[in-house]
Amino acid sequence: MTPSRIVVIGGSYGGLATIQNIIGLLQGRGLLPSPIQQKIPEILPLLRPRITLLDKRDGFFHTMGAPLALTDQTYATKAWTLYRDCNFQQSGVQFIHARVLSVNPDEKVVKYQDLDMRSDTPREICYDFLVTATGTYRPSPVVPDQYTKQKYLVRNGEHFRDLHAVDAPVIVVGGGAVGVETAAEMARAYPSKRVILVHSRQELLSSEPLPAEYKNRVKFLLQQANIDLYMGRRFIDQTRVSTDNGKCSVRVTLSSGEVIQGSTTIFCFGRETPNTEFLPLDFVNDEGFVVINPDLSFAGPGPNAPDHFAVGDAALWNGIKSVGGALFMGQCAAINIVGRIGARNAHDRAYQLKPVEIPSFPLLMYLAVGKSAVSLEPDGSVRSGCDIHDMFFGEDLGLQTLEYINQ
Prior knowledge:
Layout: E1 5-9, H1 13-26, E2 50-55, E3 59-61, H2 66-69, H3 73-79, E4 80-82, E5 94-104, E6 109-114, E7 123-126, E8 129-132, E9 136-137, H4 149-165, E10 170-173, H5 177-189, E11 195-199, H6 212-224, E12 227-231, E13 235-242, E14 248-254, E15 259-262, E16 264-267, E17 273-274, E18 290-291, E19 308-310, E20 315-316, H7 323-344, E21 365-369, E22 372-376, E23 382-385, H8 386-392
Parallel strand pairs: 1-2, 1-8, 2-5, 8-19, 10-11, 10-16, 11-12, 18-20
Antiparallel strand pairs: 3-4, 5-6, 6-7, 9-17, 13-14, 14-15, 21-22, 22-23
Helix pairs in contact: 1-7
């Protein structure tokens, strides 16, 4: 008998939640905190499975804190935790800094490029169970496109200097959740600096199925923070120009014909694109999201689909994508994988594993708007205030609250 091999692709919230919950089950510590109490598998594996994490980043980046990282270099350092400093490696988890090139579900082989090696020769790793937790693409600088912490901090430092180089407005483009939080954080960090939020629609959060009361409350809080809202105007182009003292600023052209000059532009718009280009087309929809069953296994017609799982933003499921949803999905995937391995070792051949299934996610939303926050509760009520912010985000946009995930 040989240990089962589990490969997790992507080490953000969903991927690390999967790993940490598997470790907790195997070590007898139980599961991580969850909004829904889950049942531990009746039969655990006789042999501890081998877990390998593949990630193109060399560490975990706290995406929820990205707006704060843009304004605070000390916080930016804490927001990126190197995997070599994570305690889960002491539990036998192997980390490979890699870009995944392809997945062969028939032979159960992942082909990847090792980013720490000088050779471009592809490498391969075999698996028994695969978890896709690669999330979705967002433009830099809100979500870094650097693959190492060192390069990220250099780029973040350049952005920080751009903010202070000239006395001109900060221009945030995109009025979705990320744009709202980024603009509000800029206004909080730089109260004397003008902040402009440009959005192509007449209402904020226009791509989310949220009630008008929620969107209006968010708009009110942004206006209270003295953020200038340029609604119904599309970003057309920007050029960098030199000021009289030799420093650079940006000149942004809008669809209305207006031209705005600012110190820097932060782009927070565009459709989220899932990072699943390495998967066979049988397993994804036209937009690239992984089609899953309620037990988080692949629902596509491809080979060995029940042994492949997807969690987090890359998975196609109802509801607004969130950190909490990714953590919950990772926990459920961990239970089902451990249960599947244990069931193979069951002496009672009549034993039937009942997998954990995720429910339809209710319409929930928690959005930080500077020192305040707006929540959409399960009963449909809208609440806002500093107490909501303190409850859900704390002083560091959830960094300490979620610290357990990357330990």
